[in-house]
C-alpha cells in the first residue's frame, strides 16, 4: 500500500469496498483508537450542511466577521466539505477536552492588576498537538481499511467545525455559538478528518438544550451577541485581542477589562459546564505560569522575552506588537499606580504606531493627556 503524506493529507489509493457490517465494525474500532489518542468523543457525518450554509451567508452578509477577510474569501465553501477536499463523503469530528483545574478564572477577572488569558492557551498550542494525533489516527484508519484518502484539520482551513460536530452528534451549537456537550460542557477543542471512506454516519444532534437561559448573552462584557446564536465578532473580545490586527475601537476598550488574550465569560457562566471534567492531557496543563500574571510585568517584556515565555503556546500567534496593544488597554483599565504609569511611559515612544496609540489612550485614562504623553506639551512649554 503506497502512502503519500502532505502535512495532514494521507492518500492510500481508492477506498476499499467494505460491507455495511465491516464499515460499522471499523467505525467502532476508530472510536477506540481515538480514545487511545486522547480524544473523548468521535462522531461521523455526511457532507450535507445545507442549513448551516444559509446561516453562514447571512452572517457574512451582515459583516459580523469583521476584518477576518479569509472567511468571506472562502464564502460558503466552508459548508461544502466535498469542494474543499474533492471526493469527501464523510467527516470524522473529534472532541478533546482542555479544562484545567484550579486556574481560578473568576479570581483573575476580579483582579484588575492581573491579566486574564483564555484558559485554552495556558498549555501547549492545541493546533500542534491535535494535528499530530489526527494524523496518527488517519494513518491507522488507512492501514486498517486498506485504502482511502484522509485529510485532517484543526482550526486551520475553511471548515465549519461546529456545524460538522452538531451533525456528527457531538452536541449542539449554543446561544453563545459555542459547542455544548450535555456530559462535558463546552471546554473542548474540535478536530476533523475528511475522507472518501463511506463509514456509517452518527445520529445528528436533533435539538438544542439551552432552554430559556440567557446567562451567556447577558454576561458578555461588550454586548457582542446580536441575539441568541448570533455573534458580532467585531465586538467580541476574543476577536479583538486575537484576530483583529489594527486599532481597537476606543468605545470597546474600557469594556475589555483585564482580558488580554481571548475571553471565557460566556463559558464561565454556562450551567452546562458544571458537567465539564478536568483534562487528563498533560500538554494542556499550564506551562509558563500565566494563570494570573502581573500586567506591568508582562508589559515590560521585550520581544525576546515574549518569544521565550510563550514558546509552544497559542499566545505566539498575535506577535509582540499586538501583545503590547492588548496589555496597554488592560493597563488603561487598571487602577492607577506609579508602576502602571511608569510602565506605560516606558512604551509611549515605541516604534509601532499601534502600540503608541493604545499607550497614549491608557495614559489619558490615568489623567495624562495625549500631548503630555507625546512630549509635545513639554516642548511647547520650553518655547
How would you describe this protein?
With 383 residues, the chain is α+β, with helices and mostly antiparallel strands. Among the domains are: 171 residues, NADH Oxidase, CATH 3.40.109; 85 residues, no CATH class. Strands 1-2-6-9-4-3 form a 6-stranded antiparallel beta sheet, with helices on both faces. It has a two-stranded parallel ribbon with strand order 5-12. Helix 1 runs antiparallel to helix 6, helix 13 packs parallel to helix 15 and helix 14 packs antiparallel against helix 15. The longest helix has 20 residues. It is elongated. The N and C termini lie far apart (82 Å). The N terminus and C terminus are likely disordered.
**So what's the overall shape?**
elongated
Mean pLDDT: 92
Using the 3D structure, state the CATH architecture of the domain at 4-100 and 122-195.
3-Layer(aba) Sandwich
Largest sheet: 6 strands, antiparallel
CATH class label of the domain at 4-100 and 122-195: Alpha Beta
Low-confidence stretches: 1-6, 371-383
Helix/strand class: alpha+beta
Straight-line distance between termini: 82 Å
- Radius of gyration (CA) equals 23 Å
Topology, number of strands: 12
Instruction: List the helices and strands in order.
Output: EEHEHHHEHEHEHEEEHEEHEHHHHHHHH
Estimate what percentage of residues fall within beta strands.
5-15%
The DSSP helix count reads 17
Instruction: Estimate the helix proportion, in percent.
Output: 25-40%
Amino acid at each position: 500500500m503506497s502512502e503519500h503524506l502532505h502535512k495532514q493529507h494521507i492518500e492510500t489509493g481508492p477506498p476499499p469496498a467494505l460491507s455495511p457490517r465491516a464499515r460499522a465494525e471499523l467505525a467502532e474500532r476508530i472510536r477506540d483508537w481515538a480514545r487511545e489518542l486522547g480524544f473523548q468523543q468521535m462522531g461521523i457525518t455526511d457532507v450535507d450542511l445545507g442549513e448551516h450554509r444559509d446561516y453562514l451567508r447571512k452572517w457574512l452578509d451582515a459583516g459580523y466577521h469583521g476584518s477576518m477577510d479569509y472567511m468571506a474569501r472562502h464564502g460558503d465553501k466552508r459548508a461544502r466539505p466535498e469542494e474543499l477536499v474533492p471526493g469527501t463523503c464523510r467527516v470524522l469530528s473529534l472532541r478533546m477536552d482542555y479544562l484545567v483545574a484550579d486556574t481560578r478564572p473568576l479570581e483573575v477577572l476580579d483582579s484588575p492588576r492581573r491579566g486574564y488569558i483564555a484558559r485554552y492557551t495556558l498549555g501547549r498550542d492545541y493546533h500542534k498537538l491535535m494535528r499530530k494525533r489526527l494524523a496518527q489516527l488517519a494513518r491507522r484508519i488507512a492501514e486498517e481499511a486498506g485504502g482511502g484518502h484522509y485529510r485532517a484539520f484543526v482550526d486551520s482551513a475553511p471548515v465549519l467545525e461546529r456545524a460538522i460536530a452538531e451533525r456528527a452528534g457531538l452536541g449542539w451549537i449554543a446561544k453563545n455559538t459555542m459547542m455544548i456537550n450535555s456530559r462535558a460542557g463546552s471546554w473542548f477543542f474540535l478536530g476533523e478528518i475528511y475522507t472518501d471512506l463511506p463509514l456509517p454516519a452518527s445520529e445528528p444532534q436533533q435539538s438544542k438544550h439551552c432552554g430559556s437561559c440567557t446567562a451567556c448573552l447577558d454576561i458578555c462584557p461588550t454586548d457582542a451577541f446580536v441575539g441568541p446564536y448570533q455573534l458580532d465578532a467585531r465586538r467580541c473580545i476574543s476577536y479583538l485581542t486575537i484576530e483583529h490586527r489594527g486599532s481597537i475601537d476606543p468605545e470597546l476598550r474600557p469594556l475589555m477589562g483585564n482580558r488580554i488574550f481571548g475571553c471565557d465569560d460566556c463559558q464561565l457562566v454556562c450551567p452546562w459546564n458544571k458537567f465539564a471534567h478536568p483534562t487528563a492531557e498533560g500538554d494542556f496543563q499550564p506551562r509558563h505560569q500565566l494563570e494570573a500574571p502581573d500586567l506591568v510585568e508582562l508589559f515590560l517584556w521585550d520581544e525576546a522575552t515574549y518569544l521565550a515565555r510563550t514558546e509552544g503556546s497559542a499566545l505566539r500567534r498575535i506577535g509582540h506588537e499586538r501583545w503590547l496593544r492588548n496589555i496597554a488597554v488592560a493597563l488603561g483599565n487598571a487602577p492607577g499606580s506609579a508602576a502602571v504609569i511608569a510602565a506605560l511611559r516606558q512604551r509611549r515612544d515605541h516604534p509601532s504606531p499601534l502600540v503608541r496609540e493604545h499607550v497614549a489612550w491608557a495614559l489619558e485614562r490615568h489623567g495624562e493627556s495625549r500631548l503630555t504623553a507625546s512630549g509635545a506639551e513639554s516642548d511647547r512649554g520650553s518655547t
